[in-house]
Amino acid sequence: MVVYWLYNITGEEFLLDLGDLIHRQTFDYTHAFLNTDLLSTTGSIHCVNLAQGIKAPLIYFQHHPEQKYLDATKKGFADIRKFNGMAHGLYGGDEALHGNDPTQGSELCSAVEMMFSLESILEITGDAGYADMLEKVAFNALPTQASDDFMTRQYFQQANQVMMTRHQRNFDVNHGGTDLCMGLLTGYPCCTSNMHQGWPKFVQNLWYATADKGIAALAYSASEANIDLPGGVRVAVKEETSYPFEETIRFTVNPTAKAVFPFHLRIPAWCKKGAIKVNGKRWLEPEGNQIVKLTREWEKGDIVELTLPMHIFKSTWAENSISVERGPLTYALKIGETSKLVKNDKDPVDYGASYTEIRPTTPWNYGLILTPDSKLEEQYKWEVVKPFSHYPWNPENAPSRIKTRARRIPSWGLYNEMAGPVPYSVTYQLETEDKEEDIVLIPYGCTNLRISQFPVIRKKQDF
Ligand SMILES: [Zn+2]
């Protein structure tokens, strides 16, 4: 990657030979994704190596633009989803790759390295699907693993996480049992040095200059950018939004002189139909899963308003468990919690002088009630609960919630200080409590404790 970066600056031919040599001498991800069972085999590869290496085929594609490199990356991501995927956008990898049980760990380094890989892939391919995946990790997996002040972080997270305590769990590697605790050095120090690349690199990849001499906004967040176009025009753009907590994104385009150029915008796959207005006039109503292009003469103060209507949908995971999603956000059970700062006299050099444990104070063993897609909006009532704050990523500040009804499953209890095996959905006559209860789901990224992959149960009258 760095060799091609330098080649693009200097044009030195020997760098292309060096790129080929490095490619030949390093692990062949293209072959592994296309022709081996690497991604369906537990323990086959280190989780962070995979997050870094998934971009290797497309980095090489820059010099050797062959279809197999595009195919390898697509198949790699599809197999990660199929065999190891979880509702937070990443995969089971608690050191080694570890399948899709929602209590397997996902490392903070995997989140930030996967984001950087997706950003690199997006820049090369311009494929909207990779931006959807990037936002999934950025707005779900990433924020849960750092404390609000960014002074402590969590080494592994679980999609179903009901106890963040010091305990040896069913991970490939346990680090004194500290992996789920919030701390400076819990788990292993890599995440402490790596965590800082997540948000800044995401911000760096919100905007691109394009090959067709225009500009592109491919992932969305409030931002400002100055982009130099060939021909000497500089475009200052301002993006105002509370996305992913709101559907509308407002861009102000300020070129230094009137100029004709394309402005590319991504319409995510989860969006059925977007709406684009330019200076208040309807311009386009594009379907989801594409990048649209507004080509016109731009002048100072032009306003583009992009609306991406969000709706409730569900995804299916291990044991037919489901996650409830809306736009780029996964929603997870809000669990009452109590936290305790633990002074670590036992092994402070390895795992830090202190760490925080979090335990649940309310039940979590709920099954969602089987609902056809056509009734999801009725059964899952989404609402705004508080104005968007500058730091929405904790349970208290969650800007939105979903209310629904669920029944508890008595046989689904704690196992080894984590949620026991998730009951298979939809099992005929699974024993549940008779009483339906109101439960609240909040955005995954705002939770500490959570269930995000729920078992699904039938209504009593369906038996
Ligand atoms: Zn790490």
Short account of what is shown:
Residues 1-202 form the Non-reducing end beta-L-arabinofuranosidase-like GH127 catalytic domain. Residues 216-310 form the Non-reducing end beta-L-arabinofuranosidase-like GH127 middle domain. By secondary structure, this protein is α+β, with helices and mostly antiparallel strands.
Description:
The longest helix is centred in the N-terminal third of the chain and has 18 residues, at 67-84. The model has no long low-confidence stretch (mean pLDDT 97). The protein has twelve helices and 30 strands. The relative contact order is 0.11. The protein has three domains: 2-201, no CATH class; 204-307, Jelly Rolls (Sandwich), CATH 2.60.120; 312-462, no CATH class. Helix 7 (108-125) runs antiparallel to helix 8 and helix 7 packs parallel to helix 10. Strands 18, 19, 20, 23, 24, 25, 28 and 30 form an eight-stranded mixed beta sheet that branches. The chain has a six-stranded antiparallel beta sheet with strand order 10-11-12-17-14-15, with no helix packed on it. Strands 4-7-22-21 form a four-stranded antiparallel beta sheet, with no helix packed on it. The protein starts with a helix and ends in a 6-residue tail after the last strand. It is α+β, with helices and mostly antiparallel strands. The protein is globular, with a radius of gyration of 23 Å. Strand 1 (93-94) and strand 2 (96-97) form a beta hairpin. Helices cover 25% and strands 29% of the residues. Zinc ion (ZN) binds next to helix 7 and helix 9. Zinc ion (ZN) is lined by residues 107-109, 188, 190-191, 194. InterPro entries: 6-hairpin_glycosidase_sf (IPR008928), Beta-AFase-like_GH127_cat (IPR012878), Beta-AFase-like_GH127_middle (IPR049046). This is Beta-L-arabinofuranosidase domain-containing protein.
